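Researcher: Quick one. two chains, 674 residues in total.
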Amino acid sequence: MTVTVAIDCMGGDFGPAVTVRAARDFVENHDDVSVILVGIEEKISPFLARSADSRIAIHHASEIVAMDEAPALALRNKKDSSMRVAINLVKQGQADACVSAGNTGALMAISRFVLKMLPGIDRPAICAILPTAKGHSHVLDLGANVDCSPEHLLQFGIMGASLVAAMEHKDRPTVGILNIGAEAIKGNDVVKRAAELLRESGLNFVGNVEGDGIYKGEAEVIVCDGFVGNVALKASEGLAQMLATFLKREFNRSLLTKLVALIALPVLNNFKKHVDHRRYNGATLLGLKGIVVKSHGSADVFSFANAIERAAEEARTGVLSRITERVALQQPLQEIA
Amino acid sequence: MTVTVAIDCMGGDFGPAVTVRAARDFVENHDDVSVILVGIEEKISPFLARSADSRIAIHHASEIVAMDEAPALALRNKKDSSMRVAINLVKQGQADACVSAGNTGALMAISRFVLKMLPGIDRPAICAILPTAKGHSHVLDLGANVDCSPEHLLQFGIMGASLVAAMEHKDRPTVGILNIGAEAIKGNDVVKRAAELLRESGLNFVGNVEGDGIYKGEAEVIVCDGFVGNVALKASEGLAQMLATFLKREFNRSLLTKLVALIALPVLNNFKKHVDHRRYNGATLLGLKGIVVKSHGSADVFSFANAIERAAEEARTGVLSRITERVALQQPLQEIA
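Model:
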């Protein structure tokens, strides 16, 4: 089975210089994937000169959604943006998934408008992978929804569990809810009620997970509202960056410490590789009738290729039908309750 | 001027073995501080054997609040707990501040009941210091309030700024609000309204700070509701711990990497010292008519001594009167608005 991924080549901080190069490399290394490069043709083709792969097509789109553009305006005015056309290709069945490093708000708004929600799901959620002491966890929502109801959090749990079930071939992945105390009495009313719904849902619910529990790997899927999730994710990114800066500074302090750094380089590089956030690039917009993956705007070629792989893998493993089946299973239960 | 700090010696994971040792060391190193060691006398005195400092007094209290005890029960039933008696000493003016490594919820409930709130402040907030690329920032609330109104967040801003003004002798410390986007349009309604109030408050308000902005040092005071703050803090702790574990693992991989670790040890130790969370131990419960500092339950002697120093420094610099004055200044403005 071949999977086709539409790529918004104009999105992100570096545009085609990153997106097209990453797509080209990706196709070279993955026999089962075709890509459709969406964007301004004369900006895309220079990066393809060396390649004439039949699995690479260009689809011209004349407009670009700016990184700081208001999502509502991008939705209304940019009908021929690379972002929108890439999403249209998914809608029309010409692509199995799409990837963009562009404006998150616009990607969310346009995806929702074009693709619509899966039956039984009220809102999309941003789901990303974070490294943990035990491997990795899937956390959602990371910023699509600033206010969530308990029902939304339940839906996030169902979607996250279905995603892990499909992509990692795990029957009953563990699901936790982000909270401020391990005891059931803590947390706000929405979280408490959501925990009750998750407990009754038939999911493999393990209860509350505190902030540090994310990195301890206390659950394979962790649900939270988008405000809390976004703050936790970005605080983590900020801390990791600060620690890396401090570590570099210590090794750069003198000629002697620089020599030590040289000796320690293989060890430090192994460490860096292990926690490299670029490996985890590619957050999926779950809940839509189509696979949409958001790359970090600042992604480099290696990083963006990981986002393409994520999109391809969701298509290969049938994440959407898995979610749809699981939600259908849930609905009768909900109606009885 | 001598400052007296009451110490709940029975709180925390290690009780007097940590708290009394830390207090004894602290008094030896600080001429201007006396301590009152509160708790079960026969558990405290063994750790004092070597010392006969006139600035160390023992105040017997027969009960202990358990780390997992329900705050409401601790408040109702444990009238002679070391925690409560230490807080009573502050109330009665026998101590200028108190420190506890015990049950956070109980400490909050008992402090609020015994000391009451400062005029114009509705709720206490937990305020801690976090290291940043530029030095450090004060973040509040870190878990006392799971649902905050915009007015509460404004009060947190005023309290945080007053604290920094008093303790760090800065006239107009910068104040930011934790949010999920740098643009004013993002975030939920409470945060948006709170940002408006902060903008009109006369504080040196710098606007939205995203999660990573905490560690970039984008504001000296960062306000947020206790749910978000607690998750961000604990996620940071969890990530730092995971990274430390990974780094250790890489250096322990083989005889060669262990040798490298030995060579790199001075550099790694400098790094560790710089980001050592024990240096930042001691979160203050702001908004009460008295200084109450919460130490991490797992604090060691070095760490607990830092919490004592924090309590002493708040007393020395008159943080409470600074907050009271600043709130009084705000109130007429609020009433007009």
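Residues 226-251 of chain B form the longest helix (26 residues).
Researcher: Thanks, that's what I needed.
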